[in-house]
Specification:
The chain is an alpha/beta fold. The protein folds into 2 domains: about 140 residues, Rossmann fold; about 60 residues, DNA polymerase, domain 1 (Orthogonal Bundle). Helices cover about 40% and strands about 15% of the residues. The chain has 9 helices and 8 strands. The strands form 2 sheets. The protein has a 6-stranded parallel β-sheet with strand order 5-4-1-6-7-8, with helices on both faces. The protein is globular. The structure holds 2-phosphoglycolic acid (PGA) and magnesium ion. Magnesium ion binds next to loops. Belongs to the HAD-like hydrolase superfamily. CbbY/CbbZ/Gph/YieH family.
């Protein structure tokens, strides 16, 4: 396999390593029903993921009427309780993820996650996927006082994973902005949840399948 010119490969989680849209949609719709609102479809939910659960609820409510911080305060605990209980009912890795992660590790890279999912839920999901121990660092939305697109969580994840030359892999504009702010090369996945085509994220490269990741990194 081609040499990987990076010490750390930093991944976003939702829409990048895993398709979590089914479970996120079920939990958002559980909140919307509890608040007397119509449910939303999967494609709509995918557009709203990437900036954390509160934004998901705020924008989910806005689709059918009033949306306010007070309503988000009401809905968010309902969301957290439901999502924690259904964290991996339908969530699955994208095809080829595990083989690609194994190949990166075999090539000497350390792996890390930087997500806007709360840290506790991230660990729940990682454990449910059988991925405990695969990542040298997991930084969530509430690990630090700031979240993506602030560069601090990405820098923290890189430091915790051992430091060195890093690259960021993600699916959304939040990830692209995080990478730019942190001064990291950015690889976009085309199959994630972004609200725009991957080609419009300003990435250094775009992959449409995990089998292409190692050679793409080698060419950066
Ligand atoms: O918005 C979220 O809840 C998490 O999304 P991310 O894993 O893509 O950062
Ligand atoms: Mg994402």
């Amino acid at each position: 396999m081609a040499r990987i010119p990076f010490d750390i490969v930093l991944f976003d989680l939702d829409g990048t390593l895993v398709d979590s849209s089914g479970d996120l949609a079920a939990s958002l719709n559980h909140v919307l029903k509890a608040m007397g609102r119509p449910v939303v479809d999967l494609e709509t939910v995918k557009r709203l993921v990437g900036r954390g659960g509160r934004v998901l609820i705020r924008e989910g409510l806005a689709l059918s009427g009033e949306s306010s911080e007070a309503l988000v305060d009401e809905g968010y605990p309902i969301f957290l309780e439901h999502y924690a209980a259904h964290i991996c009912d339908h969530t699955r890795p994208y095809p080829g993820v595990e083989a690609a992660l194994d190949a990166l590790v075999a090539a000497g890279a350390s792996l890390a996650i930087c997500t806007n999912k709360p840290e506790r839920l991230t660990h729940l999901l990682i454990d449910a996927l059988g991925w405990r121990g695969r990542f040298g660092a997991i930084v969530g939305a509430d690990t630090l006082a700031v979240r993506k697109p602030d560069p601090a969580p990405a820098r923290e994840a890189i430091a915790r994973a051992g430091g060195g030359r890093a690259v960021f892999i993600g699916d959304s504009i939040t990830d692209a902005e995080t990478a730019r702010a942190a001064g990291l090369p950015f690889v976009a996945v085309s199959f994630g949840f972004a609200d725009r085509p991957a080609e419009a994220l300003g990435a250094d490269a775009v992959i449409d399948r995990y089998a292409a990741l190692a050679e793409t990194l080698a060419a950066l």
